[in-house]
Amino acid sequence: LLQATDSLLAMAGRDISLTTTTRTAQRDAGQNHFERTSIDSVAGVYVQNDQGRLVLQAGRDMNLTAATVVNQGKDSLTQLSAGRDMTLSTVTTSAQDNITWDKNNRLSQGVTQSTGSTLAGNGDVTLTAGRDMTSQAASLSAQKGLALMAGHDVTLTGAQNTSSLDEYHKVTGSSGMLSKTTTTTHDVTDRRTMTGSELNGDTVSISAGHNLNATGSSVAGDNRVSLAAGNNLNIGTLTESNRETHLKQEKKSGLMSSGGVGFSMGSQSLKVTDTATDTTQKGSTVGSVHGDVSLQAGNRLT
Length: 302
Fold this sequence. Notes:
The chain is an all-beta fold.
C-alpha cells in the first residue's frame, strides 16, 4: 500500500509490479470438502488531495495484477508509463463444495470470479507504453481526459468467470407391498461468462502504433472518443456459454398391473434426458454521450 496526500512519484529503472494477493482456505468434514480462495491483500496506490499528482514510471515493464490506483482529489493528474510493456491482469477468486451424503447422493458445485485492476482519477489519467499495452477486465476512469498510448499494440479484453454444478441422487421407495420405484436424477451445468475492460472519461483517446484490439469491452465518453491504430483496428466479441444436461430415470419393479384385473411380476423403466447448449457473444461498445466518435485505422477497420 502506497499512500500520499498531495503527490506520489514512484520510478524504477527496470520493472514496477503491483500484485494483489489471494489466500486459500480448505476444510474437510467427513467425506465433504470445502475450499475458498479470496483476496488477501490489495495492492493499492492512493493520492488524496485536490490537484494531487500520482506518477508511476517503469524503465521496462509495468505489471498491475488486480491493483487499485486512485487519485481522488479534484483536478488531479495521474500518469503511468512503461518503457516497454504495460499489463493490467486479473486474479481469480473461487469457491468449491464437494458434498457426499452416501454412494447414491452427492453434490459438487463451484464458482470462479476474475477481478481486474482499477485505475481512477478525478482529473486527467494517462497510460503510456513503449511497446504493448494490455488491459484484461480492468476498469479505467477519468473525470476529465483518459488517454492510452502504445508504440505497438493496445489490447482491451476480458477475463472468464465460471459456475458449475454436478448433482446426483438415487432414491428408492415403495409403491405398494410388492413393488418399488427407484428414481435417479443427474443434473450437470457449466456456465462461462466474461468480464470485459471498461474505459470511461469526459474524453477518451486510445492510440496504438500498430494494432488496436477491443474485444468484449466498453469505451465510453461524455464528449469526444477517439480510437486510432497505425495498422488494424478491431472491435470484436468474447464468447460466453451455458451447457446443461438434466437426466431423470424412473424404474419400477415387482408386482405391476397388466391391464384389466391382471397383475404380473416384472420391471418398467422410463428415462428422460434434456440437453441444452447456448453460446452468445459479448460485444464491445464504443460511444459518446455528447461528442463525436472517431475510429481510424492505417490498414483495416473491423
